[in-house]
Design a protein that fits this description.
- This protein is of the alpha+beta class.
- It folds into two domains: about 45 residues; about 140 residues, Ctag/Cox11 (Ctag/Cox11 (Pfam 04442)).
- It is built from three helices and ten strands.
- The strands form two sheets. The protein has a five-stranded mixed beta sheet with strand order 1-7-9-5-3. Strands 4-2-10-6-8 form a five-stranded mixed beta sheet, with no helix packed on it.
- The radius of gyration is 25 Å and the shape is flat.
């Protein structure tokens, strides 16, 4: 009879250990799912890893009024994921802009396939520290792009370089920023998802 309380105590400890292990596993799974959107948010807020910032017209007007007249070279780059049968390129490879002033770059894309293709563009800025100061007001990368077979489009990017870059000792002397886009096939075009839901 004396062994029954010992057995109950061991069973309770095993149950508690099992529950804690299960809660730990669920917490790690939850952190795994939350890590991607949290990292994306972190990059967008801080400009970490060359992630550019999104600006409003008011932000652009304010930046233009404080620009100090210094110019910087912007290099434009374009690439495609293997599963996207498009031609994609900037209309000009470089541009020289005044820090704080708005400028517009354009890219062209042409669908080389015989079917409509929906793509989405990811972007990056090099050097990575410049991402916090490269502000896009309007960009084709904000939405998915669907091109009909053989269709060619010109896609604008309206941007400016924040004058605050001149106060950052790490990057103040940079002479060139590279804006790079890569087009990927959209996992599921928005229109297809909408058609199924109706």
């Amino acid at each position: 009879m004396a062994s029954a309380p010992l057995h109950d105590d061991t069973a309770r400890k095993n149950l508690r250990t099992g529950i804690l292990a299960m809660l730990g596993a669920l917490a790690m799974l939850g952190m795994g799912y939350a890590a991607v959107p949290l990292y994306d948010l972190f990059c967008r807020v801080t400009g970490f890893g060359g992630t550019t910032q999104v600006a409003s017209e008011a932000d652009a007007n304010r930046a233009a009024s404080i620009g100090l007249g210094r110019e910087i070279s912007i290099r434009f780059d374009a690439s495609m994921a293997r599963d996207v049968p498009w031609e994609f390129a900037p209309t000009q490879s470089t541009d020289t802009v005044r820090i704080g002033q708005r400028d517009m770059a354009t890219y062209t894309a042409r669908n080389l396939s015989d079917e409509p293709i929906t793509g989405t563009a990811t972007f990056n800025v090099e050097p990575a520290q410049a991402g916090a100061y490269f502000n896009k007001i309007q960009c084709f990368c904000f939405t998915e792009q669907t091109l009909a077979p053989g269709q060619e489009v010109t896609m604008p990017v309206l941007y400016y370089v924040d004058p605050a870059i001149l106060e950052d000792d790490v990057i103040a002397d940079v002479e060139q920023i590279t804006l790079s886009y890569t087009f990927h096939r959209a996992k599921e075009p928005v229109s297809s998802a909408l058609d199924r839901s109706q």
